[in-house]
Structure formats: C-alpha cells, structure tokens
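Protein in question kept underneath.
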Amino acid sequence: MPDLPGLSRKLRNLGVVLFPLLLVPGYVVLKEATGPYFYSRNSDPDYVYLFNSLHLALGERPVHIDHPGTPLHLLGAAAIKITNLSRTSTETAVNTIVHGESYLDGINLCLAGMLLLLLVVGGALIYRATEKAWTAILFHGAILLLGGNVYCLARVNPEPLLVLISVLLGLLIWLSFVQGGDFRSPAFIATAALLCATGITTKITFAPLAVLPLLLIPSWRRKGIYVGLSGLFVALWLLPIWKSMGRFGHWLSALATRTGRYGTGEPGVLDVGSYMANIVYLASENLPFICLLAGSLAVAIYFRYVRAPDASEPCQRTAAGVLLTVAALQGVQMAMVCKYRESRYLVPAMGLAGVNLLLLARLLPGRRVFGFACAGLLGLGLWGASTRVRALAAEGAENGRIFQAAQSLPTNSVRIFCYGASSPYYAAYFGNSFTDGFYGTLLTKLISDSDRIVFYNNFQRSYRTFLHPVSLESILNSSGSVFYQTPPFVKGDLIYDWPAGVKLREYLGGNYERIYQVVPQ
C-alpha cells in the first residue's frame, strides 16, 4: 500500500501525532453516556476498587483479591495518598468517600491519558521505523476493535489497564521484530516480564498472553531469565495481599474446578453445552476481532508453511512466525474465557490487535484487498462501539430518572437498595462490603438518614444496614412506606428473584431499573 499520496512529509508527521487525538471526543461522549459511577452496575467493581485503594492508602491490606487487581489498587492508593498528604487517616477516609466520584474520575482519566500518550508515542515510533503514515494509523485504529467493549475505557476496573498493557506489549514485540527480529535483548526480556507480570496481577485472564514472550525468546537460558523475572515481578505486585494468598489460591481452584461462573456450579472443568453456546455468543459479539484472529492464523500459516520463502523478503517467514504465535495465544486466551459469558474478558487479546494488523501489513504489502479488509474491520468495530455507546446513553438516562425519583420519596419512608440500584448509598455500601464493612461506622455518621436506609443482598436473600443485619419484620413494622430500588425483579432469576415475604407493586417502571412499593398485608 502506498503511503498517503499528495501529502508532504511534514503533514504526514503532524497527522501521525494528531490522529490519536480523534479519540478524545469519543472518550468524552463515552463518559457522558456512561454516567456517574454510582449508576446501576457502574459501581461493580469500580467502588470496590475505590474502597480497597482507600484501605491500602491507610495501611490496611486489600480485602478484594478476586482479580487480584493489586496494580489498580496501588494506582488508586497512590492517587488517594498524594491528594491527602496533610490529612489524618480519618480525614483521608472521609474525603475519599465524600468525593468518591471525583477520585474514580481521576483514576480513569489517568488510565485514559496513559493510553492516549502510548498511542501517540507508539504511532510516532512505528512511522519512524516504516516511513509509512498509514501503518501508524493502523496501530491507532486497532483500538476500535474493542467494539462494544469500549465501555470499559470509561470505568475503573481491570480492563482499561489491561488494554494499556496489551497495547504496550504489542508495540514492544513489533519494535523488536523490525529491529531484526531480535527477541533476545535484555531490554526486551525485562520489559516483557514486567508487562506480563503486571497483566497477570491485574487480572488472571491475562495469563495466556504471558506465554507469548516466552515462545518468542530464543534459547532456554533466556527463557529461564524471563520466567524468573516474571515470577519476581509477580511476587512484588502481590506483596500487598501476600497474607491472603491462601484465599486467592482457593478462589483460583474454584474457578478451575467448577463449571459455573465465579467458582460456582457443579464440579468439573467446564459444561460442554454452555461452553459451546458461549463461544457462539462471544464470537457474534466480537465479530471484527474474531475475523482478524481467523485472518491472522490463515495468513501466518500460509506464509510460514505453504508458500515458498521469498528471497527478496528475508523477514517474511519471521513475520509469519511472530504473527502465528500472537494469534495462537490470542486464541488460547479466548478459549480460556469462553467458560464465562463475559465479552470484556477478551480485552487482553484485543489489546494486541495493533500488532496483528502491522504484521499482516508486512506480509501483504501493496494488497488492496488488505486495505479494504482493514477498513471493513475497523468500520465494524466503530459501529459496535457506537451501538454500545447509544445503549449506554439510553440506560444511563433511565438510571438518572430513577435516581431523581428516589430522591423525592417521602422522607419518613424506608428505602431498600438492591444490587444494581443507582444510588451513592448503595455504591458506598457495595464497595465497603469488600472491606468486610470496615467503614460502616463512618458511613453511618456521614449519611444523616442512614437509619432509614437498608440494603438487600440479592445473593443471600438477607437485609442489613451499613453496620448490621436487620430482619424483614422490623423493616415492615417501621413507620412510613417501604420502597425497593432495583433492576426489574424476575421470578426465578438467579439474582433478581422476587424477595420472599413481601407483596410489591410497581411504583415507577423502567427497562433497566425500577422502584417497587411494599403493599401492606
């Protein structure tokens, strides 16, 4: 493919630097559509990370270790510590909880800013190596292959950090390849080890991609150095939760030996029926990325094993080998997460899409069909992202309407918040529940009407305040009306089954969230 015709080198240089800035308006639109972090499911796990980052900033061990998520916990703790240097522990806790939305916005903006900077610098390095502006633009545009998963970039969960790590790992692999295909340098080995250790400790779903550098690095001695450095970096990242490693081990064991989600269900590695259904679902939800993955495997196999080597392209077989390794590990990552019906679990593999496109461009130079295919894939990714943003905006508008209505309920009423309720109270309760209720007393003091706020545990079918369990009888015997704020109750639903012992009528309806009033019996 010829470079952008009719443009001077200075204009191409400027275009390469400024092109990623087109993502900024998209990010603003995405944030607007997503709404506050206390809206419905935005609080899970964002407020969990906020409260555990606060825990870490105050010198306590994080209680939430599911992902395990320590790099993100540490990032949040650093933000809290830096902005509260002159405050006591109690003052820091109050300031963080009261301004929780601002802290989450700041952490997210930091992650988004680092990703933007990486795209700018990475694009400039690629342009410098290839002298073709369109290759840099391919690297930038690969972010669109997140499709509907783009919503993660507006949140404070592991996925934005995983995107950052994967994009950086892909850039590292590409630059090492174009510099002679040398993956033996100490700088590559050490950097890859740090990135992969950070990925694994951010979320265990990154684990298959940590094998990628191991397969690219030549000689057993260097592979051993990579494994040793990776183990060292993992141990350092896990220091904040070192005393909880036994609990984390049990969690991993349950994930691996139970067929259900989050370590639940019947004993076994997987349920074949649901696994096959999940493959179909995830493939349909992420079609542009799946097409890229399939195309990468086909092209790599063809150039590596079918087509005779081209004497004029001595790096062709190396490029095919690297592409085959990348695509194979992306496939393994997908096979791993297909046990669970969550599209966002594919984000680590998707973050590597830039290196797929660059290696394909190296193998298919001057092929118009490749250009059309790239345009089609990126267009489909953009369509998926815009569709998700529109859906988020519709859901967010309804969440806002329900939240405002809940604010207008009679002051003497008891408000029961369920999982997914759009409420700062529920968000704080949910985040605090992953610190074993450490901040319950403080929350009770901060919220003036906390005595008339109750939380319903959808999973355990129980009720509690910020501090202690309460019985349904005591709630129903209190003066004033009783209201539930929740996503719609559905008879027989695993999470949102109708609560027992009460008769409810719909007070305010919606597709995503509702308010129900208890009818006296």
